[in-house]
UniProtKB/TrEMBL annotation:
GO-annotated biological processes: nucleobase-containing compound metabolic process
Domain 3'-5' exonuclease positions: 19-126
InterPro entries linked: 3'-5'_exonuclease_dom (IPR002562), RNaseH-like_sf (IPR012337), RNaseH_sf (IPR036397)
Name used for this protein in its record: 3'-5' exonuclease domain-containing protein
Domain of life assignment: Eukaryota
Pfam families: DNA_pol_A_exo1
UniProt organism field: Ganoderma sinense ZZ0214-1
GO molecular function per UniProt: 3'-5' exonuclease activity; nucleic acid binding
């Protein structure tokens, strides 16, 4: 099944709802050294969550495949091997935006631990952390400090090394990759030949339709079959949006976001493991920790560093780093500060 651009014969995306189609798509995607991945489903990454679609495209979103997880539910089926191999290959970079829930759900659903992940959300933070302008009060730095504005007496130095995360659309608008009309219209001077394509729904109409469906059904809307066309287009459109951000972050563009790729891949691997289970991620959501880069992600702990778990978070981190983030969040939210530590 595919949806086509009304002005040409090129598919906007291909829906893979059979094992044969999934194998063919995975084999085609495996010819690339970089792919873009995004997942959709019900309450992804927390208890009760369920994966519905895995969307994967090439680095310019010229070819997008939507893998129907409900139709491809037999994890032992031999024709899923090409997809699983693609997800595990370290020589093929999987570009994501906040792939923590995606990583968790793919592991829970298929028993596959995705490797070779490059998380652009983390790349933005890493560049922000090493940019003097960002550290000294730029718009992106204020994104963190503004969250703690209730703590009027907290010295600014206390926020060093603590970084609030941007959402995908928020970041795309900051870099002027989206138009300012409330929809998801794409803007890309470099990628105009392949971007934006003429969709069956305009981005604004699509966003409004999906928002209305979400208000009615919440994220359970992703579990219905057949999936309504607006949801399929929405999933494909997110791949296009990540591709635009990837293009903006590419080497040679202002900011040098992806210059230290091996370091970013190592950071992303630590990021994926920050909340590897639905239960732990739900705890982090409740504590507001998912709004921030987990500490010990941007910089790996020194070899042999003593590591403990803080009782409320149940995450293994260097004690000093953990105290600072959890204490700030507890003070902001007027919560009791838990100082119990558990041996790892």
């Amino acid at each position: 099944m595919s949806r086509r651009n009304p002005q040409n014969t090129k598919p906007l995306f291909i829906l893979c709802a059979t094992y044969v189609a999934a194998a063919r798509a995975a084999e085609e995607l495996s010819r690339h050294d970089t792919v873009i991945l995004d997942c959709e489903g019900r309450e992804l990454g927390i208890p009760g969550g369920a994966l519905s679609l895995i969307a994967i495209g090439d680095s310019t979103a010229s070819h997008i495949f939507l893998f129907d997880v409900l139709a491809l539910s037999d994890r032992r089926h031999p024709l899923l091997s090409p997809l699983f191999a693609l997800l595990r290959r370290t020589d093929i970079v999987k570009v994501v935006w906040d792939g923590r829930a995606d990583f968790c759900e793919i592991a829970e659903t298929y028993g596959v631990l995705m490797e070779g992940v490059l998380d652009l959300q983390l790349a933005e933070v890493a560049q922000r952390a090493r940019s003097p302008h960002s550290r000294k009060g730029g718009v992106r730095a204020r994104h963190t400090v503004g969250y703690f504005k209730k703590l009027k007496d907290e010295p600014l130095a206390s926020f060093d090394g603590i970084h609030r995360l941007f959402g995908l659309e928020q970041c795309a608008r900051f870099f002027q990759l989206l138009r300012g009309d409330g929809g998801k219209d794409l803007v890309s001077p470099r990628l105009t030949p392949s971007f934006p394509r003429i969709l069956a729904f305009t981005p604004v109409e699509m966003a409004a339709t999906v928002m209305a469906m979400h208000a009615d059904q919440q994220s359970a809307m992703w579990m219905q079959r057949p999936l309504p066309s607006p949801l399929l287009h929405y999933a494909a459109h997110d791949i296009e949006l990540i591709a635009l951000v990837l293009d903006r972050f590419a080497p040679g563009q202002r900011g040098d976001y992806l210059t230290a790729l091996p370091d970013l891949l190592a950071m992303s691997a630590r990021y994926m493991q920050a909340s590897p289970t639905r239960e732990l991620r739900a705890l982090h959501v409740r504590l507001d920790l998912c709004r921030f880069v987990p500490l010990d992600v941007l910089k790996a702990p020194s070899a042999g560093a003593t590591r403990l778990k803080e009782a409320s978070r149940r995450q293994s981190l260097v004690r000093l780093s953990l105290c600072r983030l959890c204490d700030l969040l507890a003070r902001r939210n007027a919560e009791v500060i838990v100082r119990d530590w558990l041996e790892v």
